[in-house]
Fold each of these.
Amino acid sequence: MVAHTVTSFDEELAAIDRIIRDMGHFSAAMVQAATVALLEGEQDMARRVIADDAVMDARQRELDERAITLIGKRQPMADDLRTVVGAIRIASDLERIGDLAKNLGKRVAAVDKSPASQTFAHSIESMAELVQHQLERVVDIYIERDAEALVPLRADDEKIDVQYTAVFRELLTYMMEDPRNITACTHLLFCAKNLERIGDHVTNIAENAYYVMTGSQLPANRPKVDETGTQPSLA
Amino acid sequence: MVAHTVTSFDEELAAIDRIIRDMGHFSAAMVQAATVALLEGEQDMARRVIADDAVMDARQRELDERAITLIGKRQPMADDLRTVVGAIRIASDLERIGDLAKNLGKRVAAVDKSPASQTFAHSIESMAELVQHQLERVVDIYIERDAEALVPLRADDEKIDVQYTAVFRELLTYMMEDPRNITACTHLLFCAKNLERIGDHVTNIAENAYYVMTGSQLPANRPKVDETGTQPSLA
């Protein structure tokens, strides 16, 4: 990083970083609350998650305005411009994660509190925990500017995809066993897909964070596949 | 619009507009091809749609770079800054639409060519046509800067949601009738959800386009609900 003669540029960047950190931890808490609400059929908790999405939207708008003002006012070059544009992109992924957590919350009403449905809901539990952990990690790594830590983190997205494929098969099995399971399991399939998509946004954040820190692309970009969509032999 | 002493600002804006128009028509063609591929089990066509997503990504990066350079170089104020930032947001929605069309293409392999699966696939046909029409419309309206035309267009998003709810119920019925239908119908449920999400991105584009043209929010912002997620009585 080049030292700035005008320190307030760095101060403004630090303010932007703080918004990203807050959005990251807030969205991870939304994912956690939505998961608990799904597992325990907690409608009130689900409603709070749905309402919390407005906080994420407001923070993103605030970051966008600060970043655009900063670009217009300071005309940053190279490294600094990359950092500001990277922050806009990271905030956009975090805002989408907030949307997806809200969608998880909306599904709670459709998954009833019957013992069977609660059993099915547990199929997504460990996937949700992993996604939430990855989300907190990527934001902390970004704030610490620890580029090397992003390489193993991105590789862990594969674990989420493996879990998603397993959950997909498990839920399909419940549906085939008894048609009465179909509605709850269909909604849980959408929940699992939402969690997998949150994992994809975490990967996007890792890639943008690496680019901000190094100016290069994150190495070993693996091709992204949703295996459930390309295996006609699933049934 | 304020007249610019430096005409190249307008020329650069016009170049950005052309990228948006191209991305809009290209993504609508992707949605159409993916739908035909689903209805007719056309694997080759599906593969082309999947590959086409890279074109959308490249165009978005090109637009982002032009827009950021323009902001840094010209420091536009008020109306002009709003237009450039609006274009970045519209391109981001179009890029997401390309991703969703790619996801539709990926599902083709999972929906077999049996007569039953082809029947199920037709449940999404009219929804796909409406989504594609809306997408072409919103981009044309943006290019023409016809703010008033955006009001009825946004209202039409409700039609997509109504169709989505009907498709969801229809597919669930097929699944309950015969467990052998579950795999194909599950993949088609994800396709229907992707189409509904494309409709949401069209609404985002309409809102951003209106803001670019008028500086105000598009009136009568209706609350967005996915009814399938909030009606536990569906089964």
Amino acid sequence: MTTNAQLLFNAIPKGEPTSDSFKYDTSSTIDLEQELSNGASIVKLICVSLDPYMRGRMRPAEIKSYSPAFELHKPITGHGIGVVIRAAADSKYKVGDHVYGTVPYQQYLFVPGQQTVDEETKKFLGPQASLRVIKNEEGLPWSAYIGAAGMPGKTAFMAWKEIADAKKGEVAFISAGSGPVGQMAIQMAKADGLKVISSAGSDEKVAFLKELGADVAFNYKTDDAKKIFAEHGPIDVNWVNVGGKSFEEELEFMNLHGRIIGGWISAYNGQSFGVRNLFQFVAKRLMMRGFIVGDFETKYVDEFYATIPKKLAFGDLKFKECKYTGLENAPKAFLDMLAGKQSGGFGKVFVQISDDDTA
Amino acid sequence: MTTNAQLLFNAIPKGEPTSDSFKYDTSSTIDLEQELSNGASIVKLICVSLDPYMRGRMRPAEIKSYSPAFELHKPITGHGIGVVIRAAADSKYKVGDHVYGTVPYQQYLFVPGQQTVDEETKKFLGPQASLRVIKNEEGLPWSAYIGAAGMPGKTAFMAWKEIADAKKGEVAFISAGSGPVGQMAIQMAKADGLKVISSAGSDEKVAFLKELGADVAFNYKTDDAKKIFAEHGPIDVNWVNVGGKSFEEELEFMNLHGRIIGGWISAYNGQSFGVRNLFQFVAKRLMMRGFIVGDFETKYVDEFYATIPKKLAFGDLKFKECKYTGLENAPKAFLDMLAGKQSGGFGKVFVQISDDDTA
């Protein structure tokens, strides 16, 4: 038997999560030599993703939301990449296949031939509910497939295509531009010929926004957003990654018939700033639409995988990641990510669980 | 010379308007016998409309908004119906023509052959900027053409068609259902096969909502909206006539992929309740769109006039009006309308300036 370390959901946070919200547990084991039948396989996880939406899952199970609550004292789940290390003769996976999907955060994964996904999870995940084999002919780091070529990249790609209704020469504002969704959104907007204003929380991040192509980049902690909007706006497409008080300010600088793509990260911690100027929706005939990436999966998934990984590999699209090593560091990675204060730089936060020694 | 009484914008209100915001003035005169040339005509106004959006125009001219500010010490303007009593030989109007459009609130109107409309007003009015001849082959009361067959009716008709994306069997919530927009919205929703929940501020109004076809009608002053939404919701299409705190409650009871048609009357008086749960837009993937009726005028105006007046005349669509007699009573009509406390019943508030003695 082999130790199968897990990251358990340990306690429901009141307000901001702390390291006590999680428990790194090494008491479980898995038999890596077990006989496999009925399509089963064993996956060794390579890396897993830490994303803001996970905060919303750290809640009592009786509170319903768009995503299923994490189960207390069970491994948290999220997007991960792994490699198949064992497979039954009748499995749809082969040893050496790399797979992407929603997984429990632990070292090894027993994957039954018939995956049983409860209804709530299936509704949340949509067509992502089973593991997808990733060929990676582009030779990207595997972590890219949970970042720029994974859920956050898809979020930006699909929502931009579906909601932005972008027209050349318009102005886009993208907050949290250095995060994984923001990075891709900036580049989508530039590719469509928009002028891009973007913000982030440090001068180092702001410099990166410019590298990504942002025409105007500012540090929301030290710069006056209103002054910048007044000079470089009004905003035609507003990608709301943050929300709250910032959103109220942004509404004042929206252009007539502006579109708002809804994210609201600030709400994940139960923050509840009251937005007072929704009348701007009438005055400026604004349209706002909230989304989760699963909504558009079926429509765009093929186009996404056919185009984005190549562009990332060729450098036509840039991305920046922030790696934490070892599942035991996932709580720190998560808390740093929520606070926007990663120790190892910035960008898409992920945890490397193991090296891909089978490739 | 004949007295030409006017309703002047007298003072910019702080908070709620008062009767001092207006001045009924009888010092102006008009020469009804003057020689007319170059396409000019003279219109005697029959009735004018009092609408919530007018509150937004009672502001300092230097504050820009979607509608032009009223000019201090000049007649307020809005939708009216009049009859042509004199016309130059080369006028596009004939004596006896009834005309609909945006007019100064006064007894008589000199209409130049070439109407000069400033840019701001033209942008606001769109294709309505000039007077439209109304045939009224249906024999409706003229007031209907500033109500159910006028701007408020168009607002409901056009926004419902453009934004609701209604599907049979869905649930619509329409607040302020006894007002002129709400009345039509309820009937539009029923015609599309939706279950309609609607609210109003008195039991008499609530009874009328049921007459209009609302499946569930409640008095928002005495009933518990949340309980009603919990029992009869969730809401697929939310027509936000009120906004503010009610809107925050409604958001909690929206269905997945719900649509929100944006009105926000409560904001007209500068009220500014902060809506704290915009994260529902993500959680439920909601879409919200604000509009003003002029946006859709070109697209729907022919269909509107070809269908709605007939249905109103045949009783296929119901409407209720609330008449005030005499321009001097327009301030009271306006204040009553804003407060939802009309002395003469409820429904579309208008002022009868003169009888149509030319018909």
